[in-house]
Every structure is written in C-alpha cells, then in structure tokens.
Amino acid sequence: MSFHTFVENVRDPYFRGEVNTTTDFAKMLDECSAEDLVKRAQQHVTNLLTAQRELFSIKMYAAIEEYLHNDIFLLLSLVADALHNMPQYLTNLNKEELKVELLRFYQLKELILNYISEFTENKNVKIVFEGL
Q1: 103 close to 29: Cβ distance less than 8 angstroms
Q2: Closest alpha carbon to 80 in 111, 44, 131
Q3: In degrees rounded to 5, what are phi and psi of residue 32?
Q4: Fewest C-beta in 10 Å: which of 28, 31, 110, 120?
Q5: Residue pair 97/44 in contact by the 8 Å Cβ criterion
Q6: Largest CA-CA distance found in the chain, in angstroms, rounded
Q7: How far apart are CA 67 and CA 44, in angstroms?
Q8: In this structure, how many other beta carbons lie within 10 angstroms of the beta carbon of residue 4?
Q9: Does the global pTM surpass 0.90?
C-alpha cells in the first residue's frame, strides 16, 4: 500500500462529500425510524472504539507491526472523521442529518473495504474494518 494509492482510492472520494442517495444503503435508511437511526449511529461509534482497542491489543500486534508505517491508521482516522458529527445528531434527533451522516459512513466503509481487498496483503486487517 502506498499513501498515494490510499489518497486516490479512499481519502479523496470520501472528502468530496458526495452522497449517493440511490444506493441500497440509502433506501434502507429511508425506511428506518428516528430511533433505528440513533441505534445504528450509536453502534457504529461503539464499533469504532472497539476496532481501535482491538488493533492495539496483543492479538492484533503482528498485523499492526506489519502496517505500522502504512495507512491503517489513516483509515481509522477517516472512520473517526465520518462518525464525529453523529453525537450531535443523536442528541438533537435530527433524522435527516443523521441519515446523511450514516450514508456517508457506509460509503466510506465500502471504499475502505475495497481498498483493503485490492491493496493489502494481510487480509486479517479487513476483519477489523468489516466489524465497523
């Protein structure tokens, strides 16, 4: 993996901020109640913290060591960025904004999983990101 590959395939598409409202994720979110959206967002925030904990645990040490100088931490920072507005929308129960943020998150997750599948040799790291 190279930083330029990461930028081209994950970071830049995410930061363009385009939200595709025609995806299956968008249709699924349209059918969710405000309460369901809140539960989904809360779960993703929890999953991010769990993934970060797992990456620093002893059982993932070998995978981290291999990627320490690569972009696994850049991937996690983008996930954190995607989730950073969710607590505000959870508190305000702003369903429409929460749907947009969840959709951006799902699209980023898809970019990350595609990136890992294409450009990483150690597929164990993909397991962590699939759980987000």
Answers
A1: yes
A2: 44
A3: -85, 145
A4: 31
A5: no
A6: 42
A7: 23
A8: 8
A9: no
